[in-house]
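Observation: inputs received (chain + adenosine monophosphate).
Thought: call the complex predictor directly.
Action: predict_structure
Action Input:
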Amino acid sequence: LKTFETIEQCRKELSCIDGSVGLIPTMGSIHKGHLNLVRASKIENTTSIVTLFVNPSQFGRNEDFDQYPRDIDQDMVLLENEGIDILFAPKVREIYPLGFSTFVDIGDLSKKYEGLYRPEHFRGVSTIVTKLLSIFRPNRAYFGQKDAQQCAVIKKLNDDLNLGSEIIIVPTARDQFGMALSSRNIYLSELQKKSANHINLILFRAKKLYHSKNMKSCDLINFISKSLPIDINIEYVSIVNRETFATMNIPDVNSLIIVAVNIGSVRLIDNVSLS
Ligand code: AMP
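Observation:
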């Protein structure tokens, strides 16, 4: 595993690489969800590059940037075991040097759902992903379905700005109870985890109801809202088109059920596809 902190080192290394390049952007604290992206890239590319950067511009003022779990030594062991070729782990000043002032704003899609609750979030995500796709020019870049709106945002900026990578979406990795894996799950107590396990169970029940009873969105949303345990505070639950995130009154196979909740002070998101 070659580890680089600067863009210049990466560019030098890239100039010596033949064959296809797969890029896996992460904020580290590597778990099995990240490793599924890594494995997908390893199958499809000659060289696989992981980036590890806790991106300050995608965290709101009151969010957990300072507390976000970081363990680069452990991450390096996991990535080395997977046979990752290159790790890019820059310092903040490498990505945002003094005087940095250009941000990517993709418009409407970034203003709804996650964007409403986390107003700066997608501007930060769009900017860092645009920078990484520009630096590495990968043939393919890998993102997780767990962050469904992020996937839609990244596909859109890649198309709109002609960045030219193929954006590959990898299914959500879940634990044995179905909970979507996330670096933030370590914030949950055992009791909160038990509640969190209901989220995915209920989303999949709603999907079954859609297929067996052809239920409309409002009925499915009612079902989900009533079924979640009372210690789960719902921020939103909705049924949307997977690309535009337009609200769907009548769901179809291109729809996703999306949910964001708070359990105590921990915010979780999840989604299931109705296809
Ligand atoms: P993060 O480090 O949380 O920014 O995640 C880096 C990438 O891994 C993003 O594309 C995420 O969508 C993806 N990812 C995170 N958790 C999962 C999961 N449970 N299953 C699949 N992909 C995931």
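Thought: report the result.
Final Answer: Residues 26-27, 33-34, 36-37, 143-144, 146-147, 170, 172-173, 180-183 surround adenosine monophosphate (CB under 6 Å). The two ends are 38 Å apart (CA to CA).
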